[in-house]
Amino acid sequence: MRLLVAAATTFELEPLQQFLEQHCQRIAENHYRREQLDVLICITGIGSMQTVFNLSESIAAFDPHFCLQAGVAGAFDRNLPLGGLVIVQEEVLGDLGVEDNGRFRDMFDIGLMDAQERPFINKKLINTFSDFPIKLNLPFVSALTVNTVSGTETTISSRAEHYACALESMEGAAFHYVCLRKKIPFLQVRSISNYVEPRDKSRWKMKEAIEKLNGWLIANIPE
pLDDT tens digits for 170-186? Predict the structure, then answer.
């Protein structure tokens, strides 16, 4: 089995990569092998543009059987604990649109994109969870992908009201889009590093979120 593990930054997967260095054969840079399992680490870079390009390049070169995106995210839903782990079932494009007399309208609202045109279903990029080698042992949530992270009360309340998603990230929808278009089974796992609020890094739990994320990855990598 060929497993591609994607993340926006190297530090989000550093403990996993250290584990692979110690317990697997290193085939090439970011490519590891253990018995019948090949793992490729793909660091996509920040945001949708870099994610689409670098993920597509890695898929073309590695031809994975399964893709896994792992990273931290901010939570709109304060019932989700900081450091908690979730699986993203649905992704929505959160800031692709226009400002129309003080109101945000997305590309579907103004008719420039079809809300039902594959791979979209009712504006959403939905994981149908088929052909899985990894246990689905975490809560399922919806997520919003944006180019500019929410940082004002106005933006936060507007996005929360418009989309009612549990999480916010900068790469999730791009990952879902590529995997759906290429018809590759995939999974997006996120650890909650902070709540979506005016930016205050002193309140973030980044270290704890990364530790829990990588602990789950190491425990759930297929044999």
Answer: 999 999 999 999 999 99
